[in-house]
Amino acid sequence: MAILSPPFFAPAGTRSADAATRAGAAPAPVASSLASRLNWLRAGVLGANDGIVSVAAIVVGVAGAGGSTPAIVAAGAAGLVGGAISMALGEYVSVSSQSDSQRAMIEKQKRELLDDPAGELDVLTSLYEERGLAPATARQVAVELTAKDALKAHLSLELNIVEEDVASAWHAAGASALAFTLGAILPLLAILLPPEGIRVPVTFLAVLVALALTGALGARLGGSRLARATVRVVTGGAAALFVTWLVGTLLGVSVF
Predict the structure, then answer these.
(1) At how many degrees (to 10) do helices 135-154 and 117-130 cross?
(2) Are 56 and 63 in contact (CB under 8 A)?
(3) How far apart are the first and last CA of the chain?
(4) pLDDT band of 193, cuts 50, 70, 90
(5) What secondary structure letter does DSSP report for 88?
């Protein structure tokens, strides 16, 4: 007696949904959501990296010029606050533009579904056919997904958008400012805590170790080669620190 495999016992809706998955439609929102989270995490790492390098360059430059501890604190604090605000503003403008565009596309899709639901059903069917489903199967998938959530089906397949994942510009700005601030605290502590005679070498060492960690993490998140990305970040940071320290030393003047 032949034994039927499980798909033969599945309801029609399950088989059509499974067909949509094999066609590559269902994983799109999941992949988009995961990519969005990874991008946010990578942006946080890069923000921290910016904070480390920017403030370290400032305090090392002032220390190289012979600046007093109060002068270093003032310069470092100003760099931290100014950098965090700049990062937040840049992220806010960037994410606002992106989210405004996404919301406009969502509203446009809502209007199209209200004005011409039959035409939109045909569009969805054709998209599934383009992904390899037979016409009858594509039509069944489109009908069932439209009945369940027409907007979600069109957004995920046509625009690769998940409505709930549209980024908040305020959240992005706050996260960027926080990441920069956390990164900037390290060089401030490294330049202020050690004795005056060794504070610059200690800052160099602390910053380069931190950059190696953020570079490695950024490479892992971005899927690039670990060693090359880490060396690139550390080399760039070391060059920035050396140049600013050299400029401060050559100037040889105190800020105050």
Answers:
(1) 120
(2) no
(3) 94
(4) very high
(5) H
Report which listed range, 21-25, 90-94, 221-225, is most confident.
90-94
* Contact between residue 28 and residue 155 where contact means Cβ atoms under 8 Å apart: no
Token digits for 225?
A: 């080669």
| Whether 25 contacts 125, CB under 8 Å | no
Condensed to tens digits (0 to 9), the pLDDT of residues 144-183 reads 888 888 888 887 777 777 766 677 788 888 888 999 999 9
Where is 227: in which H helix or E strand? helix 226-251
- Whether this model's pTM surpasses 0.85: no
8-state DSSP, 168: P
Quick one: tokens of 40?
């946010």
Q: Do the Cβ atoms of 219 and 249 come closer than 8 Å?
A: no
Q: Is 194 left (phi over 0), alpha (psi -120 to 50) or beta?
A: beta
Residues in CB range of 175: below 8 A, 6 or more apart: 40, 43, 44, 47, 91
Angle between helices 169-192 and 199-222 (to 10 degrees): 150
Q: What is the pLDDT of residues 67-95, one digit of tens each?
A: 888 999 999 999 999 999 999 998 889 88
CA-to-CA distance for 81 and 21, rounded, in angstroms?
48
